[in-house]
Amino acid sequence: MSDEELHDELSALLDDELGADARAELERRLIDDPRLADELTRTAEIRSALRDLPEVEPPPGALEEVVNAVRAMELGERRGRRRRLVGSGVAATVLLWLVVASQVTVPAAATTPDVDGAVALHSAMAEIESAGAPGLRSTHFVGGGDRVHRGFGRSDGGLVSVFTEPGRVDWDGLGDGEKTELAGERAWAGQGDGDGVVVVERRGVIVTIVGAGEMVDDPMILAIVDQVSATGGVSERTWLDRMGELVGIG
Amino acid sequence: MGDADGWSDTGEVPTWEEVARDHGRFLYSVAYRLTGNHEEAQDLVQDVLLRVRRGLPGYQPGNLRGWLSRITTNAFLDGVRRKQRRPTTALPEDPDWVLPSSPAADEEAARRSLPDHLQAALAEVPADFRVVVVLADVVGLTYDEIADRVGVPVGTVRSRLHRGRARLREVLA
Fold it and tell me: CB-based contacts of B62: which residues, under 8 Å, 6+ apart?
């Protein structure tokens, strides 16, 4: 048995996971090697301390928030799927026409943010909130992959959803809407399920915002876009947290 | 927290909401031990419940706790790998970006109630080793069970567990 194996097996001895022969050999070595015996004692103390750790008490409402978030995503996915089924035929035709007729190839790095999915998730969140479920407004979560979502409450009681994801926008892939400018950046404004939708790209981060009313001239929306992280490496979740503090919402 | 302690299934496949209701605290506790903070623990539990929801149609009633442990472990390690691919950087030194220095009251209360030094030391253990330590010493799985959940040989479990505990010893020395 090598020295390395010998040390690795100290834990196995404590956990009663050694065969009879290996155990006997290790016990012999422990008698002859006080440093090894000391290591066993200290490992036993660590093991015991870990096993005595209490179950962690979640902060009040934390699990409820998580469950509500998953419910919203479940509902949003179902709605998004229905919308995509309706839209997929049209989208496929348009894409085929673009490829065949114009020979235009979309740069590989550019992506079309899932506006339908964002709208569906936003409306599901709003519905769950209106049914009285607490805590969703301060919940932020990854909606699969690198996309992060956070809902914010507005002073008028409405809800704004902000989605961020790394990447560049394929502007031609977005549906009917208005190409515009927001906070000095190229933007797209459209509608979905009666809500306003804005897509803007800044410093390698795609921001999709869903909310009621006029979006483009809303100071709160401008503040949100204005605060997109200065460095692409900052996690979107951190950015969302800071934004919530800065614009005083959430 | 073995199967004899009420973790065995009744033979029926639960809904994800039943899993959240019955095992949410267990999931949260394991998630907190793995991540080291409440915010990431909450995200991890959410990820686990999403995976549970997707995985339930194919779940064979048996050892639900083992299945949940595997999902939690995979979700945690996937998150670690995602972070490694997209490392975060320090936020710019801009006075406008200053956040309140004190944590929320409930966060602070929860922190005070935990053995801080041990939790902080766990965070110093490399993720692959930490998973094995948490599964052995917090969840209480055997080496065979850990090997099955993590997808590595038993010998690797033994080695990672001891090195993880050794790292804890160093940090706590």
Answer: B9
